[in-house]
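ok trying again, last paste got cut off:
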Amino acid sequence: MFFQQIQSETQNVKTEVVGMIGKFADWLPESWQPYWDRLQAIPMLKFLIIACIGYVFGKIVQFVVMRSATQLTKRTKTNADDELVLLLKRPIFLTVFFFFLILATNTLDISPGAKSTLIHLLLTILVFVWMSRGFGILALLLKVLSGLKNRYRMIQRKTVPLFSLIGKIAIVGTGSYFILLIWGIDPTAWLASAGVIGIAVGFAAKDTLSNLFSGFFILADTPYKVGDYIVISTGERGMVTNVGIRSTRILTRDDVEITIPNAVIGNAKVQNESSGRWEKYRIRVKVGAAYGSDVDQVCDVLKSIADESDNVCKDPEPRVRMRAFGASSLDFELLCWIEEPVLRGKVVHELNMKVYKKFNEVGIEIPYAKQDVYIKEMPKRD
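nice, full thing came through this time. structure:
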């Protein structure tokens, strides 16, 4: 169907061009008419004339389109549209020129089979020209989109290779489809075979594909980024050092790097300690005071300890809460914020040391579990 439409359109344009050439003869002087008639009887000369007309017309179209596009691109601040115009310059000329070459091929005195083969070759070359320019346009588009911040989150520098691969596959597939139509080959059987092969490959590499798709959605959704401290539901905690298409790597507090497949981390509950309203992280220090202690004094002592620490944030301010009446103690909790989650262990250690020393200094008892044994009667000695 596609090739029949091309042939029909080609025949219509051919008729118009031949008519124009015929009218051109009316403009010639009468003394030149015999020579023109002789030239018309030479098929190869007709081919060259139409080819030359196509070359000139293609250059004119190229000049007009490029001139108009250049005037429009001058109004923009980006250079991407200028690069796009340069990429389209040659394909526009070749499309017009090849169209006239197809018209000229129809004037040759050769067999219909050879004529059809030449036309198929010209159309195939034209498809390859647009495919090659399609790769350049795709690369330019991804370059521009990846440079835009906070607008296209799915297209980042790390996801560009994935989108590039998908785009190239789409361009090659579309070009191959048109080439099959040009040569009169039914693409249905090829598409069915490609579907069967795709299913087989999908089953054989399902784990790899699962990691790839999970990595794609992780990069697109951005639940964490390089430098964040995350805690996974499987128990791992550390700083994200790399987010790839297949896996994510985190560095634990023991300086051990763990590689987690994206299919695993994509289905796990991830707690991002560096995300949220800010990167500051709240720590909790639980302290018990003996019954009978002055609860106001306990709150003041704990608050002063946090205020005097250099590693505790002043905004938000530290706070103390009495949480419960325990079995043997009054349960308090010191709440304070630190600048980074990585400081959690260090600051908790520092605060625990200061709480113990300060409570001993001011005489606040920290209760501990103990048992009193009463002997009702001493056993008699024999």
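cool. The first strand starts at residue 229 and ends at 232. Residues 112-147 form the longest helix (36 residues).
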